[in-house]
Sequence to fold (253 residues):
Amino acid sequence: MSAAPPLLTIENLCFDFDGQSEKTVNALELSVKKGEIVCILGASGCGKTTVLNLIAGLLKPKSGSINLQTESGKRNSIGYIFQSDALFPWRTVEGNLKLAFDINGKLDRSKAKETMQLYLSMFHLNPHVLSKYPTQLSGGMRQRVSIIQSLMFDPELLLLDEPFSALDYYTKLSLEEEFCNLVKEKNKSAILVTHDIEEAVSMGTRAFIMSGGKLAKEFHIRKKSEADITRGSEEFAKHYREIWSELKTIISG
Ligand SMILES: Nc1ncnc2c1ncn2[C@@H]1O[C@H](COP(=O)(O)OP(=O)(O)OP(=O)(O)O)[C@@H](O)[C@H]1O
Ligand SMILES: [Mg+2]
Fold:
């Protein structure tokens, strides 16, 4: 067993928007190890996006702590992939992907081309897309480019807010698989917000249901080294049933 400290440790995190009677985030605790994909499910409006925004530093906690044990120890070790892609429409795909080098002067620009090509092939995108503008791409292609754009910053922790929800079923399945392979190959970590239980079971090492401002229920799905759980298998169905049964109870209050 490795005694390495968790990559991310959240303790007693509290947050409310001004004028709210109840805290959106109320004494939330979470720890994420390197190599993990942690999925967060929960009713609409329960605070999932708010938690990602707090971790990314876009919102300031009212109390509690968020500690990142990354190599740099900084928030620039976080990549945030929003639900709707945040590509710049006036830049080509190549311009969008090189954004990381414009923002972070410490990245080695001579590696840009090689890194872009590696990720394009990992996500099954033809290099011809580099000269295209975002509006010339399909939704699935744009989402792949958004993921690659975040990866160009070489983040250790990826935050994803329903990243595959707007995609057709087959694109979604292949992107989920490509993303999991990437996390494994590059030993990244990810927190993924989703409404899709199947997505949580096929991608997550652990899943949580958020309710009452905290991660109220935890499910252990797989160890990061374990083989994938085949969709349609009894094991997959068992995890699905457990999560759905809790989610149903929590949502129906
Ligand atoms: N900028 C804001 N100002 C005030 N209240 C907000 C703001 N953003 C979100 N909220 C409120 O905070 C609560 C949590 O919102 P959040 O967006 O985190 O929910 P969510 O779990 O991501 O929902 P969904 O699944 O629909 O995306 C909601 O009640 C929402 O109305
Ligand atoms: Mg949300």
